[in-house]
C-alpha cells in the first residue's frame, strides 16, 4: 500500500471540519505498507493555546524522535487535522503485531492528559475511528488506546476504551455520513489565497484581523497615524508577511505567510 492519500476524504466523511496540513500527502517515514489497526493518543500538549497547539510537534517531531508522529490530529473544537499519509512514529515498541508503526494509523487528540474531553472532540474522535474502520475493513476491536498496545504509555487519559469502542460500533451500524462542506469551509470557500505581492481589499481584511487578534506590537508602526496607514494599505508587503508568519506560528500552522484555507479560519475566528 502506498501513501494513504485518501485520508482527507475519509476525514471529511465524518462531517467535522477538516484541515489538510500543507505537505501531508507526501509526509511520512516512507509509505504506509498496510493498515491493520488504529491507535488513539492524547498529545500531552499545553493546557491552553488554541485548538491544536501540538500541531508543530506532531508534524515535525521532538528531540530524539522525528516527525511525523501521527497521521491525524483532533483539535479541541472537533476539527480534524490531516498531517501525514505515510508511516508515522506513533507506537513503539508495540505489544500488538496489529498496531506497529508499519501497520497502524495514529490519531493524536489535543489534551494535556488531565483535561475534560469536550463533546465535539469526542464525537470527532469516535466518528473518525468509525470511518477509518469502514475505509480499511477493520473490526471495532482493532481500535486501541496507546496504553493498550504499549505498556509504557498512559494515553488517552480519561477515556474508557470499552465505551469508546461501543460508540464506534453504533456509528458503524448506520450508513456513512454524506460528505458535506462544513460551515467553516463554506465561509472561507470564496476567500482568495493571498501571498506576498497580492493587492486588494482582502489584504485589508487580513490586516484588520491581525490587529484585532492582538498580533501587532504597540507603537510598532509609528503611533496612531502610522497604524492607520498600515491598516488602510491594500498591499501584501514584506512587513505584513512577517506578521502573518508570526500569527501562523502562534496558531500551530505552517509559517509560510500564505493566507489560505488553514489560516483564514484562525484569522476570522470562524472555526
Structural features, described:
The two termini are 34 Å apart. The strands form 2 sheets. The chain has a 6-stranded mixed β-sheet. Strands 3-4 form a two-stranded antiparallel ribbon. It contains 10 helices and 8 strands. It has 2 domains: 167 residues, Lysozyme-like (3-Layer(aba) Sandwich), CATH 3.40.80.10; 84 residues, PGBD-like superfamily/PGBD (Muramoyl-pentapeptide Carboxypeptidase, domain 1, Orthogonal Bundle), CATH 1.10.101. A hairpin with a 5-residue loop joins strand 5 and strand 6. It is of the alpha/beta class. The radius of gyration is 20 Å and the shape is elongated.
- Write out the strand line-up for the largest beta sheet, numbering strands in chain order: 1-6-5-7-2-8
- Content-based structural category: alpha/beta
DSSP E strands, number: 8
CATH class of the largest domain, named Alpha Beta
Strand content: 5-15%
Element order, helices and strands?
HEEHEEEEEHEHHHHHHH
* Oligomer kind: single chain
Largest sheet descriptor: 6 strands, mixed
Silhouette? elongated
Q: Based on the structure given, which CATH architecture of the largest domain is correct?
A: 3-Layer(aba) Sandwich
Amino acid at each position: 500500500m502506498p501513501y494513504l492519500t485518501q485520508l482527507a476524504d475519509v476525514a471529511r466523511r465524518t462531517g467535522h471540519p477538516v484541515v489538510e496540513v500543507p505537505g501531508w500527502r507526501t509526509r511520512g517515514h516512507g509509505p504506509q505498507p498496510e493498515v491493520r489497526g488504529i491507535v488513539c493518543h492524547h498529545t500531552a500538549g499545553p493546557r491552553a493555546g488554541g485548538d491544536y497547539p501540538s500541531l508543530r510537534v506532531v508534524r515535525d517531531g521532538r528531540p530524539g524522535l522525528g516527525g511525523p508522529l501521527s497521521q491525524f490530529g483532533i483539535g479541541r473544537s472537533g476539527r480534524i487535522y490531516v498531517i501525514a499519509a505515510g508511516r508515522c512514529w506513533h507506537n513503539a515498541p508495540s505489544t500488538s503485531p496489529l498496531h506497529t508503526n508499519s501497520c497502524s494509523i495514529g490519531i493524536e487528540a489535543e489534551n494535556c492528559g488531565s483535561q475534560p474531553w469536550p463533546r465535539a472532540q469526542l464525537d470527532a474522535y469516535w466518528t473518525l475511528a468509525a470511518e477509518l474502520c469502514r475505509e480499511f475493513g477493520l473490526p471495532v476491536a482493532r481500535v486501541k488506546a496507546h496504553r493498550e498496545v504499549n505498556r509504557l504509555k498512559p494515553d488517552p487519559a480519561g477515556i474508557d476504551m470499552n465505551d469508546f469502542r461501543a460508540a464506534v460500533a453504533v456509528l458503524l451500524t448506520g450508513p456513512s455520513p454524506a460528505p458535506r462542506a462544513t460551515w467553516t469551509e463554506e465561509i472561507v470557500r470564496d476567500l482568495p489565497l493571498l501571498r506576498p505581492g497580492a493587492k486588494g481589499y482582502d489584504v485589508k481584511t487580513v490586516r484588520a484581523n491581525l490587529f484585532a487578534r492582538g498580533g501587532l506590537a504597540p507603537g510598532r508602526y509609528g503611533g496612531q497615524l502610522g497604524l492607520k496607514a498600515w491598516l488602510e494599505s491594500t498591499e501584501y508587503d514584506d512587513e505584513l508577511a512577517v506578521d502573518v508568519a508570526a500569527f501562523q506560528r502562534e496558531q500551530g500552522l505552517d509559517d509560510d505567510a500564505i493566507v489560505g484555507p488553514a489560516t483564514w479560519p484562525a484569522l476570522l475566528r470562524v472555526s
